[in-house]
Amino acid sequence: MSDTEITTPSVPEQAAEAPVQVRFADFGLSPDILRALNDQGYEHPTPIQAQAIPVLLQGRDVMGAAQTGTGKTASFSLPIIQMLLAHASASTSPARHPVRALILTPTRELAVQVADNVKAYAKHTPLRSTVVFGGMDMKPQTVILKGGVEIVIATPGRLLDHVEQKNIALNQVQMLVMDEADRMLDMGFLPDLQRIINLLPKKRQNLMFSATFSPEIKKLANTFLTDPITIEVARANKTADKVTQVVYKIAENQKHALTAHLLRQRELKQVIIFSNTKLGASRLARELEREGMKASAIHGDKTQQERMAALEAFKKGEIDILVATDVAARGLDISDLPCVINYDLPYNAEDYVHRIGRTGRAGASGDAISIYSDKDERLLADIEKLIKQTIKRAEPQGFDPAPSFADERGERRPRRSEDAARAPRSAERPPRSLGGGGPPRREKVDPWFLKPYEPAKAAPAPAAAAVGGAAITKAKPKLAFLLGGAPKQ
Ligand code: AMP
Fold it and tell me: Which pTM does this prediction carry?
Protein backbone atom coordinates (compact mmCIF):
# COMPACT_ATOMS: atom_id res chain seq x y z
CA MET A 1 0.00 0.00 0.00
CA SER A 2 2.96 2.21 -0.56
CA ASP A 3 1.05 4.38 -2.99
CA THR A 4 -1.60 5.37 -0.51
CA GLU A 5 -2.13 9.06 0.04
CA ILE A 6 -3.47 8.56 3.51
CA THR A 7 -0.72 9.81 5.74
CA THR A 8 -1.32 7.83 8.87
CA PRO A 9 0.80 5.67 11.13
CA SER A 10 0.89 2.27 9.57
CA VAL A 11 1.57 -1.03 11.29
CA PRO A 12 4.69 -2.42 9.61
CA GLU A 13 4.06 -5.22 7.19
CA GLN A 14 6.75 -7.29 8.91
CA ALA A 15 4.67 -7.31 12.05
CA ALA A 16 1.63 -8.21 10.04
CA GLU A 17 3.24 -11.35 8.75
CA ALA A 18 5.08 -12.41 11.89
CA PRO A 19 3.68 -15.43 13.70
CA VAL A 20 1.23 -14.19 16.28
CA GLN A 21 1.54 -15.70 19.70
CA VAL A 22 -0.83 -13.46 21.61
CA ARG A 23 -4.07 -14.87 22.91
CA PHE A 24 -7.49 -13.26 22.94
CA ALA A 25 -7.26 -13.27 26.72
CA ASP A 26 -4.39 -10.74 26.43
CA PHE A 27 -6.64 -7.99 25.05
CA GLY A 28 -8.59 -7.41 28.24
CA LEU A 29 -11.80 -8.53 26.56
CA SER A 30 -14.78 -9.30 28.78
CA PRO A 31 -15.01 -12.90 30.07
CA ASP A 32 -18.35 -13.16 28.24
CA ILE A 33 -16.62 -12.49 24.93
CA LEU A 34 -13.75 -14.84 25.75
CA ARG A 35 -16.28 -17.54 26.55
CA ALA A 36 -17.93 -17.04 23.16
CA LEU A 37 -14.53 -17.23 21.44
CA ASN A 38 -13.78 -20.37 23.36
CA ASP A 39 -17.10 -21.80 22.13
CA GLN A 40 -15.86 -21.14 18.59
CA GLY A 41 -12.56 -22.81 19.38
CA TYR A 42 -10.56 -19.60 18.82
CA GLU A 43 -7.72 -18.94 21.22
CA HIS A 44 -5.19 -17.02 19.14
CA PRO A 45 -6.07 -13.96 17.09
CA THR A 46 -5.25 -13.85 13.40
CA PRO A 47 -2.75 -11.09 12.38
CA ILE A 48 -5.46 -8.56 11.53
CA GLN A 49 -7.20 -9.26 14.81
CA ALA A 50 -3.93 -8.97 16.75
CA GLN A 51 -3.34 -5.53 15.25
CA ALA A 52 -6.82 -4.07 14.96
CA ILE A 53 -8.36 -5.09 18.28
CA PRO A 54 -6.03 -3.09 20.60
CA VAL A 55 -6.19 -0.03 18.33
CA LEU A 56 -9.98 -0.12 18.13
CA LEU A 57 -10.28 -0.59 21.88
CA GLN A 58 -8.38 2.72 22.21
CA GLY A 59 -11.16 4.36 20.22
CA ARG A 60 -9.06 5.13 17.13
CA ASP A 61 -10.38 5.15 13.57
CA VAL A 62 -8.98 2.33 11.47
CA MET A 63 -8.43 1.80 7.80
CA GLY A 64 -8.02 -1.95 7.35
CA ALA A 65 -6.55 -3.49 4.23
CA ALA A 66 -7.55 -7.09 4.62
CA GLN A 67 -8.71 -9.79 2.32
CA THR A 68 -11.70 -11.90 3.12
CA GLY A 69 -10.50 -14.92 5.02
CA THR A 70 -8.09 -13.08 7.26
CA GLY A 71 -10.52 -13.01 10.18
CA LYS A 72 -11.35 -9.34 9.65
CA THR A 73 -14.95 -9.72 10.82
CA ALA A 74 -13.93 -10.60 14.36
CA SER A 75 -11.30 -7.86 14.26
CA PHE A 76 -14.03 -5.24 14.29
CA SER A 77 -16.90 -7.22 15.89
CA LEU A 78 -15.04 -8.03 19.11
CA PRO A 79 -14.04 -4.42 19.90
CA ILE A 80 -17.57 -3.24 19.07
CA ILE A 81 -19.07 -5.73 21.51
CA GLN A 82 -16.48 -4.87 24.14
CA MET A 83 -17.02 -1.10 23.79
CA LEU A 84 -20.80 -1.42 23.85
CA LEU A 85 -20.84 -3.61 26.93
CA ALA A 86 -20.63 -0.44 29.00
CA HIS A 87 -24.12 0.39 27.70
CA ALA A 88 -25.56 -3.11 27.83
CA SER A 89 -28.94 -3.30 29.46
CA ALA A 90 -31.16 -6.16 30.45
CA SER A 91 -34.18 -3.85 30.29
CA THR A 92 -36.94 -4.77 27.87
CA SER A 93 -37.58 -1.13 27.01
CA PRO A 94 -36.62 -0.35 23.37
CA ALA A 95 -35.34 3.04 24.54
CA ARG A 96 -32.60 1.24 26.50
CA HIS A 97 -31.37 -0.44 23.31
CA PRO A 98 -30.64 2.33 20.78
CA VAL A 99 -28.57 1.57 17.70
CA ARG A 100 -24.99 2.22 18.80
CA ALA A 101 -23.01 0.35 16.16
CA LEU A 102 -23.75 0.24 12.45
CA ILE A 103 -21.99 -2.19 10.13
CA LEU A 104 -22.57 -1.61 6.42
CA THR A 105 -21.87 -4.31 3.87
CA PRO A 106 -22.27 -4.42 0.08
CA THR A 107 -24.20 -7.67 -0.16
CA ARG A 108 -26.93 -9.48 1.69
CA GLU A 109 -24.79 -12.59 1.99
CA LEU A 110 -21.96 -10.70 3.63
CA ALA A 111 -24.46 -8.91 5.92
CA VAL A 112 -25.83 -12.27 7.06
CA GLN A 113 -22.35 -13.67 7.65
CA VAL A 114 -21.22 -10.68 9.65
CA ALA A 115 -24.46 -10.80 11.64
CA ASP A 116 -23.94 -14.50 12.37
CA ASN A 117 -20.44 -13.71 13.65
CA VAL A 118 -21.64 -10.81 15.81
CA LYS A 119 -24.41 -12.96 17.27
CA ALA A 120 -21.99 -15.74 18.08
CA TYR A 121 -19.48 -13.41 19.76
CA ALA A 122 -22.18 -11.50 21.72
CA LYS A 123 -24.19 -14.53 22.70
CA HIS A 124 -23.23 -14.41 26.39
CA THR A 125 -23.91 -10.65 26.65
CA PRO A 126 -27.23 -8.77 26.83
CA LEU A 127 -26.35 -6.87 23.63
CA ARG A 128 -28.81 -7.23 20.79
CA SER A 129 -27.93 -7.38 17.12
CA THR A 130 -29.83 -7.79 13.90
CA VAL A 131 -29.37 -7.75 10.15
CA VAL A 132 -31.39 -5.86 7.55
CA PHE A 133 -31.07 -6.31 3.81
CA GLY A 134 -33.20 -5.89 0.74
CA GLY A 135 -35.15 -8.49 -1.18
CA MET A 136 -37.03 -9.57 1.94
CA ASP A 137 -40.25 -8.48 3.58
CA MET A 138 -39.54 -5.37 5.67
CA LYS A 139 -42.06 -6.26 8.40
CA PRO A 140 -40.10 -8.83 10.42
CA GLN A 141 -37.04 -6.53 10.27
CA THR A 142 -39.20 -3.62 11.44
CA VAL A 143 -40.47 -5.52 14.47
CA ILE A 144 -36.92 -6.29 15.59
CA LEU A 145 -35.67 -2.75 14.94
CA LYS A 146 -38.55 -1.22 16.86
CA GLY A 147 -37.90 -3.55 19.78
CA GLY A 148 -34.46 -1.93 20.21
CA VAL A 149 -31.14 -3.31 19.03
CA GLU A 150 -27.60 -2.06 19.68
CA ILE A 151 -25.76 -3.51 16.69
CA VAL A 152 -27.25 -3.30 13.20
CA ILE A 153 -25.66 -4.95 10.20
CA ALA A 154 -27.19 -3.62 7.00
CA THR A 155 -26.94 -3.19 3.27
CA PRO A 156 -27.17 0.54 2.50
CA GLY A 157 -30.37 0.63 0.43
CA ARG A 158 -32.54 -1.29 2.84
CA LEU A 159 -31.17 0.65 5.79
CA LEU A 160 -32.30 3.89 4.13
CA ASP A 161 -35.75 2.36 3.50
CA HIS A 162 -36.04 1.73 7.25
CA VAL A 163 -34.79 5.24 8.01
CA GLU A 164 -37.44 6.71 5.69
CA GLN A 165 -40.14 4.69 7.39
CA LYS A 166 -38.84 5.81 10.79
CA ASN A 167 -38.21 2.22 11.86
CA ILE A 168 -34.69 3.07 12.95
CA ALA A 169 -32.94 6.11 14.42
CA LEU A 170 -29.23 6.52 13.81
CA ASN A 171 -28.59 9.51 16.04
CA GLN A 172 -26.91 7.46 18.77
CA VAL A 173 -24.52 5.52 16.56
CA GLN A 174 -21.06 5.71 18.06
CA MET A 175 -19.29 3.14 15.87
CA LEU A 176 -19.55 2.84 12.10
CA VAL A 177 -18.02 0.05 10.04
CA MET A 178 -17.85 0.03 6.25
CA ASP A 179 -17.00 -3.52 5.32
CA GLU A 180 -15.73 -4.27 1.82
CA ALA A 181 -15.86 -0.57 1.05
CA ASP A 182 -14.26 -1.14 -2.36
CA ARG A 183 -17.11 -3.35 -3.40
CA MET A 184 -19.67 -0.89 -2.06
CA LEU A 185 -18.22 1.73 -4.37
CA ASP A 186 -18.10 -0.74 -7.26
CA MET A 187 -21.77 -1.41 -6.72
CA GLY A 188 -22.66 2.27 -6.81
CA PHE A 189 -23.48 2.72 -3.13
CA LEU A 190 -21.56 5.97 -2.70
CA PRO A 191 -24.63 8.28 -2.65
CA ASP A 192 -26.36 5.97 -0.16
CA LEU A 193 -23.26 5.89 2.03
CA GLN A 194 -23.09 9.67 2.02
CA ARG A 195 -26.75 9.93 3.00
CA ILE A 196 -26.24 7.45 5.83
CA ILE A 197 -23.13 9.22 7.13
CA ASN A 198 -25.08 12.49 7.23
CA LEU A 199 -27.59 10.87 9.59
CA LEU A 200 -24.95 9.85 12.14
CA PRO A 201 -23.59 11.87 15.05
CA LYS A 202 -20.40 13.73 14.08
CA LYS A 203 -18.50 12.26 17.01
CA ARG A 204 -18.09 8.57 16.40
CA GLN A 205 -15.48 5.91 15.76
CA ASN A 206 -15.08 4.88 12.12
CA LEU A 207 -13.70 1.71 10.64
CA MET A 208 -13.25 1.01 7.00
CA PHE A 209 -12.21 -2.31 5.51
CA SER A 210 -11.28 -2.76 1.91
CA ALA A 211 -9.39 -5.45 0.05
CA THR A 212 -8.02 -2.92 -2.42
CA PHE A 213 -7.04 0.74 -2.41
CA SER A 214 -8.29 2.50 -5.48
CA PRO A 215 -8.09 6.29 -5.65
CA GLU A 216 -11.86 6.36 -4.95
CA ILE A 217 -11.39 4.36 -1.76
CA LYS A 218 -8.63 6.69 -0.60
CA LYS A 219 -10.91 9.64 -1.26
CA LEU A 220 -13.72 8.07 0.74
CA ALA A 221 -11.31 7.25 3.57
CA ASN A 222 -10.00 10.80 3.60
CA THR A 223 -13.49 12.23 3.88
CA PHE A 224 -14.90 10.09 6.60
CA LEU A 225 -12.07 8.71 8.75
CA THR A 226 -10.45 10.89 11.39
CA ASP A 227 -6.72 10.44 11.91
CA PRO A 228 -6.94 6.73 11.13
CA ILE A 229 -4.45 4.02 11.87
CA THR A 230 -3.81 2.01 8.74
CA ILE A 231 -3.55 -1.73 9.24
CA GLU A 232 -2.55 -4.02 6.46
CA VAL A 233 -2.16 -7.74 6.87
CA ALA A 234 -1.54 -8.73 3.31
CA ARG A 235 -0.68 -6.19 0.70
CA ALA A 236 -3.56 -5.15 -1.43
CA ASN A 237 -3.64 -7.39 -4.47
CA LYS A 238 -1.29 -9.89 -2.93
CA THR A 239 -2.65 -13.40 -3.06
CA ALA A 240 -2.59 -15.56 0.04
CA ASP A 241 0.71 -17.40 0.28
CA LYS A 242 -0.83 -20.69 1.20
CA VAL A 243 -2.88 -20.90 -1.96
CA THR A 244 -1.41 -23.05 -4.71
CA GLN A 245 -2.26 -21.46 -8.02
CA VAL A 246 -2.31 -23.23 -11.33
CA VAL A 247 -3.68 -22.49 -14.80
CA TYR A 248 -4.78 -24.90 -17.50
CA LYS A 249 -5.02 -23.72 -21.06
CA ILE A 250 -7.71 -25.39 -23.11
CA ALA A 251 -9.90 -24.75 -26.11
CA GLU A 252 -12.93 -22.66 -25.18
CA ASN A 253 -15.35 -25.48 -25.96
CA GLN A 254 -13.42 -27.86 -23.69
CA LYS A 255 -13.71 -25.77 -20.54
CA HIS A 256 -16.77 -27.55 -19.30
CA ALA A 257 -15.28 -31.01 -19.92
CA LEU A 258 -12.04 -30.06 -18.21
CA THR A 259 -13.88 -28.62 -15.21
CA ALA A 260 -15.88 -31.83 -14.84
CA HIS A 261 -12.69 -33.87 -15.28
CA LEU A 262 -10.83 -31.94 -12.57
CA LEU A 263 -13.75 -32.21 -10.18
CA ARG A 264 -13.98 -35.93 -10.71
CA GLN A 265 -10.28 -36.67 -10.80
CA ARG A 266 -9.54 -34.79 -7.61
CA GLU A 267 -12.82 -35.88 -5.99
CA LEU A 268 -13.31 -32.26 -5.11
CA LYS A 269 -15.90 -31.35 -2.52
CA GLN A 270 -16.74 -27.85 -1.27
CA VAL A 271 -15.59 -26.06 -4.37
CA ILE A 272 -16.62 -22.66 -5.64
CA ILE A 273 -16.45 -22.25 -9.39
CA PHE A 274 -16.45 -18.72 -10.74
CA SER A 275 -18.18 -17.82 -13.95
CA ASN A 276 -18.13 -14.36 -15.50
CA THR A 277 -21.77 -14.46 -16.48
CA LYS A 278 -25.04 -15.34 -14.81
CA LEU A 279 -26.01 -17.46 -17.77
CA GLY A 280 -22.68 -19.26 -17.75
CA ALA A 281 -23.01 -19.99 -14.03
CA SER A 282 -26.50 -21.43 -14.44
CA ARG A 283 -25.53 -23.50 -17.44
CA LEU A 284 -22.41 -24.94 -15.86
CA ALA A 285 -24.23 -25.84 -12.64
CA ARG A 286 -26.95 -27.55 -14.66
CA GLU A 287 -24.45 -29.45 -16.75
CA LEU A 288 -22.46 -30.63 -13.75
CA GLU A 289 -25.70 -31.76 -12.15
CA ARG A 290 -26.55 -33.70 -15.27
CA GLU A 291 -23.22 -35.44 -14.93
CA GLY A 292 -24.22 -36.59 -11.47
CA MET A 293 -22.49 -33.94 -9.40
CA LYS A 294 -24.14 -32.00 -6.61
CA ALA A 295 -23.95 -28.44 -7.93
CA SER A 296 -25.91 -25.24 -7.62
CA ALA A 297 -25.58 -21.73 -9.04
CA ILE A 298 -25.80 -18.39 -7.26
CA HIS A 299 -25.94 -15.12 -9.11
CA GLY A 300 -27.76 -11.83 -9.19
CA ASP A 301 -30.84 -13.17 -10.97
CA LYS A 302 -31.56 -15.68 -8.22
CA THR A 303 -33.95 -14.62 -5.53
CA GLN A 304 -32.62 -13.95 -2.08
CA GLN A 305 -34.25 -17.15 -0.85
CA GLU A 306 -32.66 -19.20 -3.60
CA ARG A 307 -29.23 -17.76 -2.89
CA MET A 308 -29.52 -18.35 0.84
CA ALA A 309 -30.82 -21.88 0.29
CA ALA A 310 -27.90 -22.69 -2.04
CA LEU A 311 -25.39 -21.24 0.41
CA GLU A 312 -26.91 -23.16 3.32
CA ALA A 313 -26.93 -26.40 1.34
CA PHE A 314 -23.29 -25.81 0.40
CA LYS A 315 -22.30 -25.12 3.98
CA LYS A 316 -24.09 -28.26 5.16
CA GLY A 317 -22.35 -30.32 2.49
CA GLU A 318 -25.61 -31.12 0.71
CA ILE A 319 -24.11 -29.69 -2.43
CA ASP A 320 -20.44 -29.95 -3.29
CA ILE A 321 -20.09 -27.31 -5.96
CA LEU A 322 -21.29 -23.74 -5.93
CA VAL A 323 -21.05 -22.00 -9.29
CA ALA A 324 -21.04 -18.27 -8.67
CA THR A 325 -20.59 -14.90 -10.28
CA ASP A 326 -18.27 -12.39 -8.60
CA VAL A 327 -21.03 -10.22 -7.23
CA ALA A 328 -22.93 -13.16 -5.74
CA ALA A 329 -19.83 -14.71 -4.21
CA ARG A 330 -18.43 -11.57 -2.69
CA GLY A 331 -17.89 -11.93 1.02
CA LEU A 332 -19.14 -15.49 1.33
CA ASP A 333 -17.84 -16.76 4.62
CA ILE A 334 -17.08 -20.35 3.89
CA SER A 335 -14.07 -21.57 5.78
CA ASP A 336 -11.71 -24.42 4.94
CA LEU A 337 -12.54 -24.20 1.28
CA PRO A 338 -10.03 -26.57 -0.31
CA CYS A 339 -10.38 -25.36 -3.86
CA VAL A 340 -11.59 -22.54 -6.05
CA ILE A 341 -11.94 -22.93 -9.80
CA ASN A 342 -12.00 -20.03 -12.23
CA TYR A 343 -14.09 -21.40 -15.05
CA ASP A 344 -13.59 -18.00 -16.66
CA LEU A 345 -10.68 -15.71 -15.89
CA PRO A 346 -12.16 -12.51 -14.46
CA TYR A 347 -12.26 -9.39 -16.64
CA ASN A 348 -11.05 -7.40 -13.68
CA ALA A 349 -7.71 -8.70 -12.42
CA GLU A 350 -8.52 -7.64 -8.86
CA ASP A 351 -11.43 -10.04 -8.86
CA TYR A 352 -8.92 -12.85 -9.23
CA VAL A 353 -7.48 -11.90 -5.85
CA HIS A 354 -10.97 -11.81 -4.33
CA ARG A 355 -11.91 -15.11 -5.86
CA ILE A 356 -8.91 -17.07 -4.69
CA GLY A 357 -9.30 -15.45 -1.27
CA ARG A 358 -12.10 -18.01 -0.84
CA THR A 359 -9.52 -20.70 -0.33
CA GLY A 360 -6.60 -21.02 2.02
CA ARG A 361 -8.59 -19.08 4.57
CA ALA A 362 -7.47 -18.32 8.11
CA GLY A 363 -4.27 -20.29 7.70
CA ALA A 364 -5.60 -23.32 5.82
CA SER A 365 -4.00 -24.20 2.50
CA GLY A 366 -5.94 -24.36 -0.73
CA ASP A 367 -5.87 -24.76 -4.48
CA ALA A 368 -6.84 -22.09 -6.97
CA ILE A 369 -7.33 -23.58 -10.41
CA SER A 370 -7.95 -21.40 -13.44
CA ILE A 371 -9.00 -22.47 -16.87
CA TYR A 372 -8.41 -20.23 -19.85
CA SER A 373 -8.36 -20.27 -23.58
CA ASP A 374 -6.49 -18.42 -26.31
CA LYS A 375 -8.69 -15.38 -26.11
CA ASP A 376 -7.94 -14.97 -22.40
CA GLU A 377 -4.16 -14.61 -22.68
CA ARG A 378 -4.43 -10.94 -22.00
CA LEU A 379 -6.58 -11.39 -18.91
CA LEU A 380 -4.00 -13.83 -17.54
CA ALA A 381 -1.21 -11.37 -18.26
CA ASP A 382 -3.15 -8.68 -16.38
CA ILE A 383 -3.61 -10.96 -13.38
CA GLU A 384 0.04 -11.93 -13.26
CA LYS A 385 1.06 -8.32 -13.50
CA LEU A 386 -1.25 -7.40 -10.65
CA ILE A 387 -0.17 -10.20 -8.31
CA LYS A 388 3.47 -9.87 -9.44
CA GLN A 389 3.68 -13.60 -9.80
CA THR A 390 3.80 -16.09 -12.65
CA ILE A 391 1.12 -18.67 -12.19
CA LYS A 392 2.17 -22.23 -12.83
CA ARG A 393 0.97 -23.63 -16.17
CA ALA A 394 -0.06 -27.25 -15.98
CA GLU A 395 -1.35 -29.96 -18.22
CA PRO A 396 -4.43 -31.81 -17.08
CA GLN A 397 -3.49 -35.38 -16.24
CA GLY A 398 -5.62 -38.08 -17.81
CA PHE A 399 -7.77 -35.65 -19.77
CA ASP A 400 -8.36 -36.47 -23.37
CA PRO A 401 -9.82 -33.41 -24.97
CA ALA A 402 -10.04 -34.70 -28.52
CA PRO A 403 -13.41 -36.44 -28.71
CA SER A 404 -15.71 -33.73 -27.56
CA PHE A 405 -13.61 -30.98 -29.09
CA ALA A 406 -13.87 -32.69 -32.41
CA ASP A 407 -17.51 -33.37 -31.77
CA GLU A 408 -18.25 -29.69 -31.76
CA ARG A 409 -17.17 -29.76 -35.35
CA GLY A 410 -19.09 -32.90 -36.16
CA GLU A 411 -15.94 -34.90 -36.54
CA ARG A 412 -15.95 -37.57 -33.87
CA ARG A 413 -18.35 -39.12 -31.48
CA PRO A 414 -18.48 -37.54 -28.05
CA ARG A 415 -17.75 -39.38 -24.87
CA ARG A 416 -20.73 -40.67 -22.95
CA SER A 417 -20.71 -38.01 -20.28
CA GLU A 418 -20.37 -35.25 -22.81
CA ASP A 419 -23.21 -36.71 -24.77
CA ALA A 420 -25.90 -35.82 -22.31
CA ALA A 421 -24.39 -32.58 -21.27
CA ARG A 422 -23.57 -30.56 -24.28
CA ALA A 423 -23.29 -32.17 -27.65
CA PRO A 424 -25.79 -30.72 -30.06
CA ARG A 425 -27.74 -33.62 -31.49
CA SER A 426 -27.27 -32.54 -35.05
CA ALA A 427 -23.50 -32.49 -34.63
CA GLU A 428 -23.33 -35.69 -32.67
CA ARG A 429 -22.29 -38.28 -35.15
CA PRO A 430 -20.48 -37.79 -38.39
CA PRO A 431 -21.61 -39.73 -41.42
CA ARG A 432 -19.67 -42.95 -41.35
CA SER A 433 -18.79 -45.37 -43.99
CA LEU A 434 -20.46 -48.66 -43.05
CA GLY A 435 -17.63 -50.64 -44.45
CA GLY A 436 -17.68 -52.82 -47.50
CA GLY A 437 -16.20 -51.18 -50.56
CA GLY A 438 -13.75 -48.29 -50.63
CA PRO A 439 -10.79 -47.34 -48.46
CA PRO A 440 -11.35 -46.68 -44.75
CA ARG A 441 -12.58 -43.15 -44.26
CA ARG A 442 -9.97 -40.98 -42.66
CA GLU A 443 -11.38 -39.02 -39.78
CA LYS A 444 -10.55 -35.36 -39.82
CA VAL A 445 -8.73 -34.58 -36.62
CA ASP A 446 -7.68 -31.11 -35.68
CA PRO A 447 -3.88 -31.06 -36.21
CA TRP A 448 -3.60 -29.25 -32.89
CA PHE A 449 -4.12 -32.59 -31.16
CA LEU A 450 -1.52 -34.40 -33.21
CA LYS A 451 1.29 -32.04 -32.28
CA PRO A 452 3.57 -33.28 -29.50
CA TYR A 453 3.44 -31.12 -26.44
CA GLU A 454 5.92 -28.25 -26.51
CA PRO A 455 6.42 -25.95 -23.60
CA ALA A 456 5.72 -22.35 -24.45
CA LYS A 457 8.93 -20.57 -25.39
CA ALA A 458 7.75 -17.29 -24.00
CA ALA A 459 6.42 -18.83 -20.79
CA PRO A 460 8.44 -17.43 -17.90
CA ALA A 461 8.60 -20.46 -15.63
CA PRO A 462 10.19 -23.78 -16.58
CA ALA A 463 7.09 -25.53 -15.27
CA ALA A 464 5.04 -23.58 -17.73
CA ALA A 465 3.14 -26.32 -19.40
CA ALA A 466 0.10 -24.87 -20.97
CA VAL A 467 -1.88 -27.27 -23.04
CA GLY A 468 -0.90 -26.70 -26.61
CA GLY A 469 2.17 -24.80 -25.53
CA ALA A 470 0.97 -21.38 -26.57
CA ALA A 471 2.88 -18.39 -25.38
CA ILE A 472 1.57 -15.62 -23.27
CA THR A 473 1.07 -12.56 -25.37
CA LYS A 474 2.74 -9.49 -24.03
CA ALA A 475 -0.36 -7.46 -23.46
CA LYS A 476 -0.35 -3.90 -22.27
CA PRO A 477 -1.90 -3.70 -18.80
CA LYS A 478 -5.46 -2.57 -18.93
CA LEU A 479 -5.49 0.11 -16.32
CA ALA A 480 -9.17 0.76 -16.62
CA PHE A 481 -9.78 -2.87 -15.75
CA LEU A 482 -7.50 -2.74 -12.75
CA LEU A 483 -9.42 0.21 -11.46
CA GLY A 484 -12.65 -1.68 -11.66
CA GLY A 485 -13.84 -0.40 -15.00
CA ALA A 486 -14.66 -3.77 -16.47
CA PRO A 487 -18.11 -5.26 -16.69
CA LYS A 488 -18.71 -7.74 -13.90
CA GLN A 489 -21.18 -10.08 -15.48
P1 AMP B 1 -13.35 -13.45 7.85
O2 AMP B 1 -12.12 -12.95 7.17
O3 AMP B 1 -13.83 -12.56 8.92
O4 AMP B 1 -14.43 -13.76 6.85
O5 AMP B 1 -13.00 -14.84 8.59
C6 AMP B 1 -12.57 -15.96 7.89
C7 AMP B 1 -12.78 -17.26 8.66
O8 AMP B 1 -11.86 -17.37 9.72
C9 AMP B 1 -14.16 -17.38 9.27
O10 AMP B 1 -14.63 -18.67 9.00
C11 AMP B 1 -13.93 -17.19 10.75
O12 AMP B 1 -14.87 -17.90 11.50
C13 AMP B 1 -12.52 -17.75 10.94
N14 AMP B 1 -11.80 -17.11 12.05
C15 AMP B 1 -11.92 -15.83 12.46
N16 AMP B 1 -11.09 -15.59 13.50
C17 AMP B 1 -10.42 -16.73 13.73
C18 AMP B 1 -9.39 -17.11 14.69
N19 AMP B 1 -8.90 -16.24 15.57
N20 AMP B 1 -8.94 -18.36 14.64
C21 AMP B 1 -9.41 -19.24 13.72
N22 AMP B 1 -10.37 -18.95 12.80
C23 AMP B 1 -10.86 -17.71 12.81
Answer: 0.58
Q: Answer whether 13-232 and 243-407 agree in fold.
A: yes
Which pLDDT does position 305 carry in this prediction? 77
- Which residues, 6 or more positions from 291, have their beta carbon under 8 angstroms from its beta carbon? 260, 417, 420, 421
Which residues are paired to 295 by β-bridges?
321
Q: Rounded mean pLDDT of 70-86?
A: 95
The confidence score (pLDDT) of residue 399 equals 84
Q: Is the shortest distance between the CB of 71 and ligand 1 below 6 Å?
A: yes
Probe ligand 1: pick from 37, 72, 73, max atoms within 8 Å of CB? 73
Given the CA of residue 43, which atom of ligand 1 is nearest to it? 19
358 lines ligand 1 (CB under 6 A): no
List the single range of 257-271, 286-300, 359-373 with lowest mean pLDDT. Answer: 359-373
pLDDT tens for each residue of 99-136: 999 999 998 888 999 999 999 999 999 999 999 999 88
467 vs 192: CA distance, rounded Å: 47
Architecture of domain 13-232 in this structure: 3-Layer(aba) Sandwich (3.40)
Distance 36 CA to ligand 1 centre (A): 14
Half-sphere exposure of 473 (CA within 13 A, CB side): 10
Render pLDDT for 222-241 as a digit per residue (tens, 0 to 9). Answer: 888 999 999 987 644 455 56
Distance 45 CA to ligand 1 centre (A): 9
Determine whether the shortest distance from the Cβ of 74 to ligand 1 is under 6 A. Answer: yes
Q: Angle at the Cα of 177 (from 175 to 178), degrees rounded to 5?
A: 150
How remote is the CA of residue 63 from the centroid of ligand 1, in Å? Answer: 19
The structural architecture, per CATH, of the domain 243-407 is 3-Layer(aba) Sandwich (3.40)
What is the structure's pLDDT at 360?
63
- Structural domain spans, the chain: 13-232, 243-407
Task: Output 367 or 76, whichever has higher pLDDT.
Answer: 76
- Average of per-residue pLDDT values in the chain: 77
Q: Which of 46, 103, 118 to mutate to test the pocket of ligand 1 (most atoms within 8 A of CB)?
A: 46
DSSP line for 306-330: HHHHHHHHHHHTS-SEEEE-HHHHT
Give the helix ranges, DSSP H, for 388-451.
Answer: 402-408, 416-421
CA-closest residue to ligand 1 atom 17: 71
| pLDDT value, residue 336 | 60
Nearest residue by C-alpha to atom 19 in ligand 1: 45
